[in-house]
Amino acid sequence: MNKKPKKSPPVPPQTNFVKILHGLIIISLFIMIGSGLQIYNATPVFGGKGGWSFPKWATLGGWLAGGRNWHFAAMWVFAFTLLIYGIYIFLTKRWKRKFVSEQDLKALKVGQNPKRRTYAWHRIIYTGIIPVLLLSIASGLAMYKPAQLHWLAGLFINWQILRTVHFLTVPISLLFILFHVVMGIRAGGLSLTRSMFQP
Ligand code: HEM
């Protein structure tokens, strides 16, 4: 008997523009994390000097000033890439099609199709990364220019809470990235993941 070859799930086409923005966000985010952890180690948020710190391999910059240089250089790439991406999804109406929608929530609530449910989770995860990244920018800007942006810094009540919120965007974004990779593979196999990186 002839067995039909197994069909791989359809892969949505990605424009090169989106692939470049996606790559730039990944690279700059990891520079922000490594240099941020270097800054953290100078005076740990948890426990102050001599408090809980990170191993050298997880940091970037070698010392406080080196970490700050990397952080403040990469923040422009990181923030502007997200801004350009925001403008792009707005102008192309991509936000209507590509992000979590009522259909996804319906699929999770009443849907019986396991593939559709996995796909809904995949969309929830990657949509959820965006507010976390925006929070890292808002809290970072409040620390960068606390005098000029005192209204923004004031939203975080005090400096310790501001530092803690900014720091927490590291583990939260790493968790989101991990789930994003896993759900991407579960929803569309390796071909979906590859479609975001291959030219
Ligand atoms: C445009 C975006 C960002 C700006 C403007 C910004 C700005 C800052 C500033 C001003 C500091 C304190 C520097 C110092 O005390 O010398 C800092 C620390 C830090 N940043 Fe960012 N940052 C941004 C994005 C990020 C991102 C995306 C991450 C990682 C997800 C991150 C992780 C950290 C960490 C871990 C610290 C050390 C926290 C502490 O010890 O207080 N930052 N950032």
UniProtKB/TrEMBL annotation:
<keyword id="KW-0812">Transmembrane</keyword>
<dbReference type="InterPro" id="IPR016174">
    <property type="entry name" value="Di-haem_cyt_TM"/>
</dbReference>
<dbReference type="InterPro" id="IPR051542">
    <property type="entry name" value="Hydrogenase_cytochrome"/>
</dbReference>
<dbReference type="InterPro" id="IPR011577">
    <property type="entry name" value="Cyt_b561_bac/Ni-Hgenase"/>
</dbReference>
<feature type="domain" description="Cytochrome b561 bacterial/Ni-hydrogenase">
    <location>
        <begin position="15"/>
        <end position="197"/>
    </location>
</feature>
<keyword id="KW-0614">Plasmid</keyword>
<dbReference type="GO" id="GO:0020037">
    <property type="term" value="F:heme binding"/>
</dbReference>
<keyword id="KW-1003">Cell membrane</keyword>
<dbReference type="Pfam" id="PF01292">
    <property type="entry name" value="Ni_hydr_CYTB"/>
</dbReference>
<dbReference type="GO" id="GO:0009055">
    <property type="term" value="F:electron transfer activity"/>
</dbReference>
<feature type="transmembrane region" description="Helical">
    <location>
        <begin position="164"/>
        <end position="185"/>
    </location>
</feature>
<protein>
    <submittedName>
        <fullName>Thiosulfate reductase cytochrome B subunit (Membrane anchoring protein)</fullName>
    </submittedName>
</protein>
<dbReference type="GO" id="GO:0005886">
    <property type="term" value="C:plasma membrane"/>
</dbReference>
<feature type="transmembrane region" description="Helical">
    <location>
        <begin position="20"/>
        <end position="40"/>
    </location>
</feature>
<dbReference type="GO" id="GO:0022904">
    <property type="term" value="P:respiratory electron transport chain"/>
</dbReference>
<feature type="transmembrane region" description="Helical">
    <location>
        <begin position="124"/>
        <end position="144"/>
    </location>
</feature>
<feature type="transmembrane region" description="Helical">
    <location>
        <begin position="70"/>
        <end position="91"/>
    </location>
</feature>
<keyword id="KW-1133">Transmembrane helix</keyword>
<keyword id="KW-0472">Membrane</keyword>
